[in-house]
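Researcher: Here's a chain I'd like modeled. Treat it as a single chain, no partners, no ligands.
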Amino acid sequence: MLTAETVEDWQSIVEGKSAAKRYFDPDHPLDLLYGADPGGRPVFIIVTPSEPDEVTVSRDITTTKGQRSDGRWVLTLRLDDGTLFTSFSRLCLDLVARSRGARSPEESIETLLRVLDEWKVLLRRYRPRRLDLAKLRGLVAELWYGFTILLEDHPASSVAQSWVGPTGAPQDFAFLDGQLCEVKARRPSKRTVEVASVAQLDPKGKPMTLGVVLLDDCSPEAVGAITLISLLSHVRSLPQLGFEGRSHVDNHIRELGVDETDTYYADTAFLVLGFQTFDVNPDFPSIRSSTLDGLPVSNVRYDLAIEPLKPHLLQEVTYADEGGPA
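Model: Modeled as a single isolated chain. Structure tokens:
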């Protein structure tokens, strides 16, 4: 099993500059090992039955290959910047997990290299950029609602896999059963939420809910305060999340350009004062694409008042001053 203990063990090998190499998964079709080189740099070792293609990942990862005495080949990925160990370990764990189900070593290495290509695209696109306060508030609302409220009806792994907002999808969550959910953050002083496009609240015949999280700014020391960092820590600790679910969350956070070492994300705190869930049914008062058919308009954005939505209210919870569950 690939668990946090694997990463902790790997970290201890790196910090101790040990020559130990350990298998990720003895039942994997390939021999995949983790450890460190003599200089204490993390290494990921792939043993293949035939010579692998040349591989480049990023400027911070050096790849080498060589042939063993038994005729098999070794492809080694070495991380040169130790500060990136957390990201490197997630990459390697993703490679292990997603190539495990192959029926042969040849199929497994093919899958592993394909997954590595996906990571290379992600790494090229990644540029740290600080989210402004409005976007950060929206992201916190998405994660809190998804992994607190939606968690009541779906396992954590399903919530993670269904979180598609960062990919540019119309809604924040799209479950395999067709259920859609859009989440909005609302400050106590606001009586409306902004709808960024017509598609956002147009379910096109699918079941859909709108979650509105009442989110106030507060000090990080306030009772019940949450930050993006504390929220991510909570999400990653959920027992049912699983490795693939965690990778899904981590990849989206990376795609958004969030640098979790930036103290801005730990110092900017919010208090969840409550939430509302609305049924976006055919009578829900949102603009639909059918409403605009034939009209010479585009890029529609609008503010939606909350009070008139009460007939469509499914659930409303108000928390005490210490805020909602973290």
